[in-house]
Amino acid sequence: MPKVLVSDSVDRAGIEILSQVAQVDVKTGLPLSELISIIPEYDALMIRSGTQVTKEVIEAGAQLKIIGRAGVGVDNVDVAAATRQGIVVVNSPEGNTIAAAEHALAMMMSLSRYVPDANHSVKSGEWNRKAFIGAEIYKKTLGLIGLGKIGSHVANVAKAMGMKLIAYDPYISNERAEQIGCRLVELDVLIQEADYITLHIPRTEETANLINAEALAKMKPTARIINCARGGLIDEPALAEAIQEGRIAGAALDVFGHEPLEADSPLREGDKNLILTPHLGASTAEAQVNVAVDVAEQIRDVLLGLPARSAVNIPGLYPDALAKLRPYLELAEALGNMVGQLAGGRVESLTISLQGDLANQDSKPITIAALKGLLTPALRERVNYVNANIEAKERGIRIIEMRDASVRDYTDSLHLEAKGSRGEHTVTGALLGDGELRITNVDEFPVNVPPIQHMLFTRHRDMPGIIGRIGSLLGSFNVNIASMQVGRKIVRGDAVMVLSLDDPLPEGILEEILKVSGIRDAYTVTM
Question: Which residues pair with 453 in a beta bridge?
Fold first, then answer.
């Protein structure tokens, strides 16, 4: 039975799902050295934000198949190292969407009306209404940096409260922004126009300290900033200084560059214009259940050999694409496996042509599947959908993608060409109406055979008796033929023969086949 390590506190609902298919060990608060020492025992690791999954942890996890982060970000996982090791990394991109959006809105309202300080004042025995004259958000301009699921929900609620919406998001179309009710603007424009600025973006090299001293200097003196997204997006000393000097009206932060917030952080010196909470964005009972269940289901599926729906390191393999393209992924993997063996040895390049209706589909997952098939004979279990692209690049394999919607031999088909130590070879395949995989062309010769485990391909002169001699030779070695197809372009010209075999070819038989008069080449392919 597979083993799963849960190294951070997660809701019991997630543990129960994992327990259906695996032995689950819950060990929280592990020192890095102890995590490294025990991780070789486990097939999966489930975490939240507390566990740092470093390169050393990943390299020690010889059996790891999946790392699941019960939350949105994967900042605490070395995704590149996991990808190199062929480990799927998943998260829960929607599990805490509502919780995070509502906390951002709560912070904005609290900051506008000084709710935390007013509460403390009353509990201290005071009644000082004049000290807490706030600001209305009605008709104010809200600037959203990031218009994904969380940002969009904030926008919808803010719009209902009568706010004007502007947004900066280079990955969102104008049409999508208009549907939400936002006007897309450049970042500088947003910073200068907004009364409230709320951040909903990941922390990357490009977004680190996005709100810095220069940006703060451009804001209105009445501007307020809310960050419930990721720490490190704001230059915290610069923000503290701007608030203390009255250059902006305030800020509400739920996340910080270092967590827990350092004792000497200048943010701790803020007054009623600065609200701080300890990373509570996802801290609702509902969100805790949602993210735990979401990630546990994905870990369960991967352990059962099924795809993960929210993998962050498998480009193009999203749930909708998987459901639609799964048969074509199987076809691409089979054709990649076959053309790689035909080309032989070190493959220099692989050309992938999507034909017919398939030319309108996303090529990324199909390319990955073809590369996995191409590399499987050499790398076996070391190659998978996660690391196939990296393995190909490290071997210097040049990948060329092409589309040709005009090809109509089949409704949609896939054509691969590989250049290797045995020259150039091509295979084409398609799906029949019942979803059956078929090889429809080998080295530009038409055939129609399903791929099976053991196959023999020959290139020969189209001449009487040659098929019989090959059949007799195989029979003398006790190899049974399941099916046979011959493809040719002209009578008595060159032809290819594809033999589907019930058994692998015994040692030495290929040399005997090559001695048969008229046989130019012969290759075995094991799928």
Answer: none
Q: Which of 48, 103, 153, 230 is catalytic?
A: 230
List, as one string, the DSSP characters of 178-204: HHHT-EE--HHHHHHH-SEEEE-----
Residue 316 has pLDDT above 90, yes or no: no
Q: Is 130 exposed, middle or buried (0-12, 13-18, 19+ CB in 10 A)?
A: exposed
User: Among 285, 284, 292, 283, which Cα is nearest to 15's?
Assistant: 292
Distance separating alpha carbons of residues 169 and 94, to the nearest angstrom: 19
Report pLDDT for 23: 98
The alpha carbon dihedral of 294, 299, 300, 306 has a sign of: positive
Please determine, for residue 318, whether its predicted confidence score (pLDDT) is greater than 70.
Answer: no
Rounded (10°) CA dihedral 305, 309, 314, 318: 130
Surface-to-core class of residue 354, CB atoms within 10 Å of its CB (0-12 exposed, 13-18 middle, 19+ buried): buried
Select the highest-mean-pLDDT range: 89-93, 116-120, 492-496.
Answer: 116-120
Is the Cβ–Cβ distance between 372 and 329 less than 8 Å? no
**Spatial distance between the Cα atoms of 5 and 290, rounded to a whole number of angstroms:** 19
The catalytically annotated residue of 259, 269, 394, 436 is: 259
Instruction: Give CA separation, 487 vs 340, 419, 427, 495, in Å.
Output: 20, 22, 13, 6
Give yes or no for a contact between 439 and 338, defined as CB atoms under 8 angstroms apart: yes
> Bridge-partner residues for 69, per DSSP?
47
Instruction: Express each pLDDT in 453-502 by its tens digit.
Output: 999 999 999 999 998 999 999 999 999 999 988 998 889 899 999 999 99
Closest CA to 190 of 212, 169, 172: 169
Q: Which residue has the higher pLDDT, 527 or 257?
A: 257
pLDDT of residue 307: 78
Q: Which residue has the tokens 């993960």?
A: 308
Reply yes or no on whether 279 is catalytic: yes
Choice among 176, 247, 279, 422 that is catalytic: 279
Round to whole Å and give the CA distance between 198 and 256: 15
Report how far residue 388's alpha carbon sits from residue 376's, in angstroms, rounded to the nearest whole number.
9
Contact (Cβ atoms closer than 8 angstroms) between residue 339 and residue 418: yes
The length of the chain in residues reads 527
Q: pTM of the prediction?
A: 0.62
Report strand pairing: 519-526 vs 437-442: unpaired
Question: Token pair of 343, please?
Answer: 């080309």
Omega before residue 93 within 30° of 0, cis:
no
String of DSSP letters for 497-525 = EEEEESSPPPTTHHHHHHTSTTEEEEEEE
- Tell me how far apart the alpha carbons of residues 409 and 160 are, in angstroms, rounded to a whole number: 54
